[in-house]
Design goal:
Helix content is 53%, strand content 8%. Strands 1-2 form a two-stranded antiparallel sheet. It starts with 12 loop residues before the first helix and ends in an 8-residue tail after the last helix.
């Protein structure tokens, strides 16, 4: 029996993004951290969550690519970038996932 069954038809893009973003405890903790502590660096997140910086770096990049995090202030020289959560993007992805799971027509985005 296969370990992973691909959905047929394929998931809408927004649902696929939502499953990657919300399907992991460390990523959920990171979203919660950035949502509760606006304008924080990756080092601050790693220290606060007591997880390796490499993990925070990898997950922060995923969240940036998904539009869940935005750069609040670009890093320059010794100053690292700071990040914050885009609550509208989080709401949109959660709604798309909810719609898909409840078998209503999920919009492909």
């Amino acid at each position: 029996m296969p370990k992973f069954v691909r959905p047929n038809p394929p998931l809408p893009m927004s649902v696929s993004i939502a499953t990657r973003v919300f399907g992991s405890e460390p990523i959920a903790a990171l979203i919660r951290y950035y949502a509760s502590n606006s304008s924080r660096t990756m080092n601050e997140a790693a220290n606060s969550l007591e997880v390796p910086r490499q993990m925070v770096n990898r997950h922060t990049k995923l969240l940036l690519d998904a539009g869940v995090l935005v750069i609040d202030q670009e890093g320059s020289g010794p100053q690292p970038a700071t990040y914050r959560v885009d609550p509208e993007r989080v709401d949109m992805l959660l709604n798309e996932l909810r719609t898909y799971l409840q078998r209503r027509d999920a919009a492909s985005s």
